[in-house]
Design goal:
Layout lengths: L4 H25 L57 H5 L4 H8 L18 E2 L5 E5 L4 H6 L6 H12 L8 E4 L13 H18 L3 E5 L1 H8 L5 H4 L4 E5 L2 E8 L2 H6 L3 H19 L5
Parallel strand pairs: 2-3, 2-4, 4-6
Antiparallel strand pairs: 1-3, 5-6
Bound molecules: iron/sulfur cluster.
The site of iron/sulfur cluster has 12 residues, from helix 6.
């Protein structure tokens, strides 16, 4: 045995006890009163016969070792008129206030139970210019108002750049409740909520709608082309016997992410086109 080995053994012996005891004392000071050992799976008895690997027959699928997850629970909206406002309550609302009253308890889609605040929309009830975004984010969900976070600040600046104030316009979203993790609302969620937005538009009767991002364009007009391709090109929404010009532009959140001169100029051009339209002399 090489020289020095006994000393090394002795120091190991000391480490086996003192640091462990110190660690135990520390844990106890922290309030941990006992440590639980995970039970080990029982070993197969040595006498158990060796099993041959089973080969699945052609007619039987191989047994899966993974647990099969249960099918996703289908969301069942409540049947009452508060959780699921009937169409006549929506179409029968003759003011924005009455509409909000009729739908603010809505739980028609899975976004409803997860919301903190219902975000109906806000602004001038007779606005000539209306903005339609996708859905509330975290700040909007907390405050119950549309476009109040960083994207909202930018939208306010964008509106100011064309010589208007936020209060002169109306701002709403495709869905009134926040999608989790700010994801895009699913088609079923958007469809469940779209009737509310359409009634809002009918009541406001804007001269022009500016859609922010791809989602409102897709849900309101069925346009599935990318926003980069289609922004700045007039579209038309037929609703309530009227044809409303629609100007698609980028969502302010996208502008914040891509804060380039080109993107900002593009948005300004789109909003300027919308403003020029509402300012044009009307035929008498
Ligand atoms: S997102 Fe719209 S449809 Fe879904 S629960 Fe909220 S208000 Fe109702």
């Amino acid at each position: 045995m090489p020289e020095g080995a006994p000393r090394f053994r002795a120091s190991l012996d000391a480490m086996d006890t003192s640091p462990l005891e110190a660690w135990r004392d520390t844990l106890q000071e922290l309030g941990v009163m006992g440590l639980v050992r995970e039970p080990r799976p029982e070993a197969e008895p040595a006498s158990a016969p060796l099993r041959r690997a089973e080969t699945p027959s052609r007619s039987q699928p191989p047994p899966s070792t993974r647990p099969v997850p249960p099918p996703a629970a289908r969301y069942e909206p409540p049947a009452d008129p508060i959780g699921c406002p009937p169409p006549e309550a929506v179409l029968g609302a003759t003011s924005l206030q009455a509409l909000e009253q009729a739908i603010q308890g809505c739980l028609k889609c899975p976004l409803g139970p997860g919301r903190i605040r219902f975000v109906f929309g806000e602004g001038n009830p007779s606005a000539r210019l209306m903005f339609v975004g996708e859905g509330p984010g975290r700040d909007e969900d907390l405050q119950g108002r549309p476009f109040v976070g960083k994207a909202g600040e930018l939208l306010d600046k964008m509106i100011g750049a064309i010589g208007l104030t936020r209060a002169e316009t109306y701002i709403a979203n495709v869905v009134k409740c926040r999608p989790p993790d700010n994801r895009t609302p699913g088609p079923d969620e958007a469809r469940a909520c779209l009737g509310y937005l359409r009634r809002q538009i009918e009541l406001i009767q804007p001269v022009v709608i500016v859609t922010l991002g791809a989602t409102p364009l897709r849900e309101l007009l069925g346009v599935s082309e990318g926003i980069t391709r289609i922004r700045g090109q007039w579209r038309q929404l037929e609703l309530g016997g009227r044809r409303i010009p629609v100007m698609p532009t980028f969502h302010p959140a996208y502008v914040l992410r891509q804060y380039t001169q080109d993107v900002r100029r593009a948005v300004w051009q789109d909003l300027k086109a919308a403003k020029d339209w509402i300012d044009r002399p009307t035929e008498s």
